[in-house]
C-alpha cells in the first residue's frame, strides 16, 4: 500500500499532461507622463523564467523575473537603478469534475527600497467560448509590505482580489499568434496597507500581450500594461515592452 501511494504521488508530481519552461529576455519602457508621476519608473532590461504545468488535478504557473539585472540602467534624476525581483505562483486546483477551481496566488516584488507580497485565496472558473479561453476569479487578499525611506510596514488582510485572464489564438502572415489580456484588481485595501505604499483603496493592472511563435521553441512578445495604484507605484501609468523567448 505504501509503495502504491508513493508511486501515485510521484506520477502526480512528475507526469503532468502538459509542461513547459521558457526564458524571456526583454526591455520595458514607460511613457513620459508615467515617469513624471512615478519617480521609481525608468526604462530597463529584464529576464524572466516561467514554468507552466497542466495536469489532471489542475494547473500551476510560476515565474521569477529580474528587472534591471546587473543594475545597468540608471533611474530618474541621476539616481542609480536598482535590481528588482518579482515572483509569481498561481495554483488552480480543479474542484471535482466542475469548471471551478480552488485558487491560490502569491506575487512578490522586492528591491532595496520597497517590498510587497500579496497572497490571494479564493475560487476561479475556466470557461471556453469557441477559441476564446477565460479564467476568472475572486478571493481574499493577504498583504505584507515595507517602504524603507519611511520605515512604514504592513502585514495583514487587505480587502479582496479579482482576476480575469483571457487568451485567444490566431494566425496571420503564416505564423501562430496568441493574444492575451490579464486583469488583476485589489478592492477595499486596508488603510495601513494604503498608507505604507501610498495606494488608493482600489488598484489594478491590465496587461495586453501579443505572443508570436516563430518556431516550436522560439517566440517574440509585445506587451502593453496600464496600471493604477499598483506594483509599489502610487499613481497610474503605462508600461510597454518587447521580448524574445525560448521554450525548452
Automatic annotation (TrEMBL):
Pfam families linked to this entry: Channel_Tsx
Signal sequence interval, chain numbering: 1-19
GO CC annotations on file: cell outer membrane
Record keywords: Signal
InterPro entries: Channel_Tsx-like
Protein name: Porin
Organism: Shewanella benthica
Amino acid at each position: 500500500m505504501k509503495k502504491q501511494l508513493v508511486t501515485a504521488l510521484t506520477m502526480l508530481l512528475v507526469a503532468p499532461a502538459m509542461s513547459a519552461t521558457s526564458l524571456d529576455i526583454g526591455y520595458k519602457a514607460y511613457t513620459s507622463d508615467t515617469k513624471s508621476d512615478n519617480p521609481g519608473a525608468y526604462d530597463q532590461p529584464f529576464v524572466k523564467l516561467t514554468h507552466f504545468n497542466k495536469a489532471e488535478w489542475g494547473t500551476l504557473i510560476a515565474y521569477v523575473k529580474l528587472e534591471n539585472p546587473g543594475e545597468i540602467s540608471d533611474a530618474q534624476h541621476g539616481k542609480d537603478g536598482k535590481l528588482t525581483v518579482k515572483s509569481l505562483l498561481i495554483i488552480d486546483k480543479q474542484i471535482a469534475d466542475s469548471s471551478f477551481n480552488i485558487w491560490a496566488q502569491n506575487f512578490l516584488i522586492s528591491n532595496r527600497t520597497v517590498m510587497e507580497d500579496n497572497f490571494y485565496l479564493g475560487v476561479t472558473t475556466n470557461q471556453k467560448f469557441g477559441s476564446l479561453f477565460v479564467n476568472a476569479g475572486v478571493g481574499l487578499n493577504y498583504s505584507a509590505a515595507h517602504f524603507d525611506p519611511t520605515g512604514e510596514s504592513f502585514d495583514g488582510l487587505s480587502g479582496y482580489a479579482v482576476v480575469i485572464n483571457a487568451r485567444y489564438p490566431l494566425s496571420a502572415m503564416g505564423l501562430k499568434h496568441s493574444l492575451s489580456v490579464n486583469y488583476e484588481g485589489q478592492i477595499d485595501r486596508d488603510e495601513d496597507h494604503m498608507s505604507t505604499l501610498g495606494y488608493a483603496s482600489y488598484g489594478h493592472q491590465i496587461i495586453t500581450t501579443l505572443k508570436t511563435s516563430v518556431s516550436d521553441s522560439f517566440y517574440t512578445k509585445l506587451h502593453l500594461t496600464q496600471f493604477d495604484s499598483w506594483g509599489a507605484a502610487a499613481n497610474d501609468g503605462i508600461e510597454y515592452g518587447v521580448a524574445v523567448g525560448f521554450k525548452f
